[in-house]
Structure formats: structure tokens, C-alpha cells
Amino acid sequence: MQSSKMRRKVAPATADGDSSEKFDQLLLSSAICNNEDLGPFVRKAFTTGKPETLLHHLRHFARSKESEIEEVCKAHYQDFIMAVDDLRSLLSDVDSLKSSLSNSNIKLQSVAGPLLSSLDSFVEARNISQNVSLALESVRTCVKLADLCSRANLHLSNNNFYMTLKCVDSIEGEFIDKTPSSTLRKMLEKQIPEIRSYIERKINKEFGDWLVEIRIVSRNLGQLAIGQASSARQREEELRIKQRQAEEQTRLSLRDCVYALEEEDDDDGLGDQGKDGYNNGGSGVLGFDLTPLYRAYHIHQTLGLEDRFRQYYFENRKLQLTSDFQVSSMTPFLESHQTFFAQIAGFFIVEDRVLRTSGGLILKMDVENLWETAVSKMCSVLEDQFSRMQTANHLLLIKDYVSLLGVTLRRYGYPVDPLLDVLSKHRDKYHELLLSDCRKQIGEVLAADKFEQMLMKKEYEYSMNVLSFQLQTSDITPAFPFVAPFSSTVPDCCRIVRSFIEDSVSFMSYGGQLEFYDVVKKYLDRLLNEVLDGALLKLINTSIHGVSQAMQVAANMVVLERACDFFFRHAAQLSGIPLRMAERGRRQFPLNNARDAAEEMLSGLLKAKVDGFMTLIENVNWMADEPPQSGNEFVNEVIIYLETLVSTAQQILPAKVLKRVLQDVLSHISEKIVGTLLGDSVKRFNVNAVMGIDVDIRLLESFADNQASLLSEADANQLKTGLSEGRQLINLLLSNHPENFLNPVIRERSYNALDYRKVITISEKLRDPSDRLFGTFGGRGLKQNPKKKSLDILIKRLRDVS
To answer: Partner of 465 for a Cys bridge, out of 107, 364, 438, 491, CB 3.0 to 4.6 A?
Structure first.
């Protein structure tokens, strides 16, 4: 207490009259009482450079608090004294308690000593056990880890990357955090990314090798698939041929036919299951193996790089397809088109299998986009190549292969209509080229024809040249050697036309148009009407110089008429329509112009020959005293020639053609006789001359009647109508009542072939015996002959009419 008072006296409070210092002192006192931070006051004191003021305020605050402490101590001093007395009274009790506790402690230690020793042993044993358990667990963990590492290395060495990655994932997920060895942990943390990187590089290399290999495989695969489509088409064609033969036999009622469709398994060999768990989707023959692709995709899925691999696959395949579109300018497209289309076909067969079996590696939309690009490019290539081609066969070969490509890829669901549209677009050009080729071939065939009947020594020749075109007139096979009524031109032209039909049908078939007979028929009509008919007309007009040649051409035309029936039936059969529909749409004979020209040429040559004999008519005595009994010389010569002609012509010319030709020749003879009587060379003639002409016409009529055995009685009678003008004129001149010519009924019935102007001129030349011209019309008296009178009346009346 003394010291406290002394301190108060030593450190008296200083009075400061400065109000700011008092304010600072109050702020400091308030902060200390409130337990606030004094840092701001310290920083301010040092900032202003007055730390002594701060220390002064702190000392002043401490002195102010000492007085408060003294007051507190004074207030509690008596209580403190009493407490000290109580503590002193307790010291004896504490000593006794301390002695008791010491004794108890000694006893407790004596009793607990062994127990504590046992407890220490137990604790030590437990710690050892825990350490051993921990060590065993660590060993087991390391053993499992080592086993996984060993298996991972084994799988990696065997290129079993998926199992390697599964082991690595297991190590990383289950063991790497539990590994007690930091060294081992660091090694694993370093090696695991390297293993994954190695697997990615390895699998990418395998995939790259597969991309190279699949291009070759795609070409072979496309060729195989298109070849199978071709084989299937060939089987269909063979089946159609058998069906047509059966229908033809049934139609001809040759025999009862029973036929059935034979079904064959269509194993395209384009699917297989891989033995290693991957669906390789390929053919063992071609090595169409998708295992590397599926493996690469699966590994990238395991690595978490699925999207990147999808993009990588699509871009590489797109680049390959773009490369496949390149057409070499060094190789003709005809030689490279199969490889070009087979490569594309194989590409999309592979993509179809990948789409269906890879589990999302490529999207259907991506494949469709690739196909649209491919179709557009193929159409462009076809348009360009077709525009350059000038050979029908080349165009047909490419069209056939493209149609097979369409059949092949349609089986896999790809739309091929744009390709078929390109083929249809060039239909007209193909047929124009085909017509041009046929025109050239027909011209060469006709130029090489020797106009000789064709000799066939063997049955196969007969079958090849006659039966194959249904040119036979009888079902009985002739004896060999057989001389055909036609020349070699006929079967050669038939072969050209048949080839045209088959090529036309081949182009139109499998082109997306189901009914194309009308198109084939249109071009067949053009071939026959424009090409063949035109070539025959040119041949007839420029190369026929003899009767035998003209006769052979006329015979050929008859056979070609039968061949034309076969052509249209053959086109109908190949087009797959019933024959009755084809026969219903038949028009007239397409070679009418050539046939008519051939018969006209033959008739013209025969008329020229006959004209040579008819010059003998100049030797007729027109004022003969007696009528000739056996006809005039010219008629005998003509009949001898005609009989010789008929004996030759009947071997090659059909009866109807021979009848038309003979009728035309007889009509010409009749016209020549009438023309002679009408002409200036005959000034006058008598009835004896008329009777001689009557005998001549009777001989010609007898010749016509004799042809009844060759033709028919009706045809023989029609043959005589060629002589109707001469016969009616002679009948009129020999008639007792020539004025009946003026009767319309009689004239229409008996003189319908006569021209009244010719009757006037010829009748005026007839003389009776009174003027040494008409001696047979009456006696030798001076009285006018009634017949002459009637004839004069006829002439007068006819002149009045004219």
C-alpha cells in the first residue's frame, strides 16, 4: 500500500491545457476500456512523430487505474484475511489426507504394477498385430496389383488391347490410390498414360492398314456382287426361254408341256460371323473382314475417344470415295468402267454392313449423303462418256453393267433411279447407233449376195438358216443336200435383224421400264421400213440386171415376209408380252416397197424379154387370104419362153407371186397386141388377120389354163384376166352385132376393158371383101355386109359420143 502511494506521488498527473490532447487521451482510454485495437493510435503517433505523447497518455491511464485497484483491495481486505485463516486451518487436514493418499498410492502401485506390465505387453502386442495386419493387407494389395500388371503385360504382348485397357482401368480405379509404395504409385501414374497412348497408336496403325486393304477388297467385292447379279439375271433369262418354248409348243399344240419354276438359294456370300467375337460382316472368299474396324472402334470407345474416331472414320472413307470417282484419261472408259463401278458398289456394300452392324459408328444420314454424292458423280460420268461414244455395242456393254450395278445396290436399299434415268435418256442415241451399224451390215450383206439359191448340206445348216427364223413352209425336214428357194441374203439379214431385236430388248430390259415392247417395235419398224427396205430398194434399182437375179430377189422378198412375222413374235417374246397382243398390233408388211419394186423389176425384165419376141408381130400378114391355123410365130415364141420361165420360177417363186408376175406379163402382151393394131405400123387388116390374133390369144389362154396344176383353178382363171383387153377387142371385131358395144349393160358385162377411142381407131382399119379388107363379112356381091354396116354405125355413134 505504501508503495502504491509512493508511486502516485512519483508520477503525478500532468495537466495539459491543450484540448486536442485531452480528446486524444479520452479516445485512448475509451478504446482500452472497450478492448479495441490500439494499432490506429500507434500508427498515428508514429506518423505525427509524437510517440512520447502516446506513452504519456498510456502512463496516465495506468496511474488512473491504480487508484481503482487500491479501492477494490481495501473493500475486500477483511474477507481475504478470513480466507487465509481458513486455509491455515485446513493444512492439518490436508497433511492427514496426504498421508492417507500416499499410503493408498503405495498399495495401489504394489497391486497395479504387474497389471500395468501386462497392459504394456498387451498394448505392444496389439500394435505389432496391427502392423502385421497392415503389412499383410499391403502385401495382398501389391500381389493383386502385380497380378493385374502381369496380366496387362501379357494381354499387351498378345495385342489383346481391350483386356489390357480393362486391366489398366482396374489398376487406376481400384489400386493406384491404395498402393502403399509411393515409388510403385509414381511408376503406375507414369506408365498407364503411356500404355494407353501406345494402344491408340497401335490400333490406329491397324485401322490404317485396314483402310488400305478395304479398297482392294471393295473392288473384288463389287465385282463378285455384280457377277452374282449377272448370274441371277442369266438364270432368269434361261427360265424365260424355257417358258417361251413351252408356251410356243403349247400354242402350236405339239405336245402337253408341264414346267415349273426352280428355286435356288441365293447365297451372296457377303455375310459371316467372326470367330473372335466381332461380326466381321464379310466373305471368307474375299477376306471381307471388318474385325479391324470394329476392334478399333471398340478400343476407341474404351479410351473415351468414340466421337473422334467416328469423325476420323467418316473423313477417311469420304476421301477414299472421292478418290474412287477419278476416271483415268489414259484408259478407255470401256475398259475401265467395270472397275470404276465395281469399286463404288463394293464401297457401299461395305458401308451398308458397317451401318447395320457397327453399333453407331456411322449414321444412316451420312451414308445417304455419300450415296447421293456418288450417284451424282456416276450420272455425270455416264453423261460425259455416253456423249462421246459412237458405237452401239460399247454403249450397250456399259448400260448392262450399270443396270447390274443398280440391281446389286437396290438389294442393299440404295435408290438407283437417277442412274436408270440416265440410261433411258440415251435410249434414242443407242438405237440410232444400232440402226447405223445395221445399215452398214445389211449393205455389206446385200453387196456380197450372188443371187443364187442357198445350198444346205447338213441338218444343222438347215436349222441355223431356216428353222431358227421359222422360214420353213412345212414341218417335215427335207432331204439333204437341200436347195433353199432364197439366197444367202435372207438368213444373213435375219441374223442382223434378230441381233438388233435382242440388243434393243437388252438395252430396254432392266432399265426401270416394265413394258417396253412398243419402244422395241417402234425401232424395229424403223429398221425394217427405213434401213432394210431402203437397202433392198437400192439393190433392186442398181444391181439387178437379169431375170434370174430379179426372180431370186422376188423369191427372197416372199421369205422375208415370213421372217417379218417371226421378228415381231420374237420381239414380243423377249419383251415378255403375249403373242396375241403382238399379232393384234401388227400392221402391213414393212417391206412392201421393196417387194413391189422386186416384182416390178421382174415383170419389167420379163416384159423386155417378151418385147423381143413380140417384134415378130411385124411379120404378120394383116391382109391374109386364110387365117393361120396354129397361131402366129411371135405367140409361139412367147409361149415357149413363158413355159420355160414357169418351169424355172416354180422352184423358187411362190404361186401367188408367180401368178402376179405372169398376169402382168400376159396383160403386157395383150396391150402390145392391141397397141400394134392401134399403131401406125398396121394401116389396115382383115378378118382373117383378126381370126389369127384370136388363135394367138386362145393359145395364151390355154397357157394360162395349164397353170391350174401349179396355181389353182381360180388363180388360172384370174391369170386369163390379163388378156381381157385383147380378148374383148377380138370378140368385138368378130361379133355379128358389134353395135351391142353401145348397150351399157352388154358393154359392162362383155367389153369393160375396152377404151372406146381405141375401138374407133381399130375398127376403122378393118376392111371387108368388097374393098379387099372385109371379105369374110359377106358375099362377093355389091350389097353391103350387114356386119360392116353395124360396125359403121358403131364407129359413127362412138365418134358422136367423143
So the answer is: 491
Residue 251 confidence (pLDDT): 53
One-letter amino acid at 518 equals D
| Residue reference for cell 457377303 | 270
**Digit-coded pLDDT (tens) for 559-598:** 888 888 888 888 888 877 777 766 665 567 788 888 888 8
Closest CA to 430 of 456, 397, 454: 397
Which residues, 6 or more positions from 18, have their beta carbon under 8 angstroms from its beta carbon? none
482: β partners: 456
- In the numeric block, which cell numbers belong to residue 776? 369374110
Those residues whose C-beta lies under 8 Å from the C-beta of residue 126, and which sit 6 or more positions away, are none
Largest CA distance in the chain: 227
Q: What is the pLDDT of residues 138-195, one digit of tens each?
A: 787 777 777 778 777 877 777 777 787 777 777 776 766 677 777 777 777 777 788 7
Residues linked to residue 766 through DSSP beta bridges, in sequence order: 685
CA atoms within 13 A on the CB side of 78: 1
d(CA 243, CA 248): 8
C-alpha cell at 712: 389353182
With beta carbons less than 8 A apart as the criterion, state whether 398 and 385 touch: yes
Non-local (6+) Cβ contacts of 222 within 8 A are 341, 342, 343, 344, 345, 346, 347, 349, 408
Alpha-helical runs (H) found in 303-426:
306-324, 333-357, 364-388, 392-410, 417-425
Rounded CA gap, 463 and 477, in Å? 10
The C-alpha cell of 247 is what?
408356251
Q: Give the up-direction half-sphere exposure of residue 126: CA atoms within 13 A in the CB hemisphere.
A: 6
Name the phi and psi angles at 95, rounded to 5.
Answer: -65, -45
Taking CA atoms, 793 is separated from 362, 417, 637, 776, 798, in Å, by 111, 87, 38, 19, 8
Q: Which residues of 487-524 are buried (b: 16+ CB within 10 A; e: fewer)?
A: bbbbbbbbbbbbebbebbbbbbbbbeeeebbebbbebb
pTM (2 d.p.): 0.66
* H or E element that contains 456: strand 455-456
Burial class (CB in 10 A: 0-12, 13-18, 19+), 801: exposed
481/453 Cα distance (integer angstroms): 12
C-alpha cell at 410: 437396290
Cell of 115: 497389471
CA-nearest of 319, 338, 318, 345 to 217 is 345
Is the CB of residue 235 less than 8 Å from the CB of residue 264?
Answer: yes
Mean pLDDT of 444-467: 84
**Among 346, 544, 572, 311, residue whose Cα is nearest residue 449:** 544
- What does the pLDDT look like over 343-370, one tens digit per residue? 888 888 888 888 888 788 888 898 899 9
> From the CA atom positions of the chain, what is the Rg in Å?
65
Residue 774 DSSP one-character state: B
Give phi and psi for 685, each to the nearest 5: -150, 160
Summarised one tens digit per residue, pLDDT across range 102-141 is 888 888 888 888 888 888 889 999 999 988 888 887 787 7
Closest among 637, 614, 609, 623 to 699, alpha carbons compared: 637
Angle between helices 333-357 and 364-388 (to 10 degrees): 170
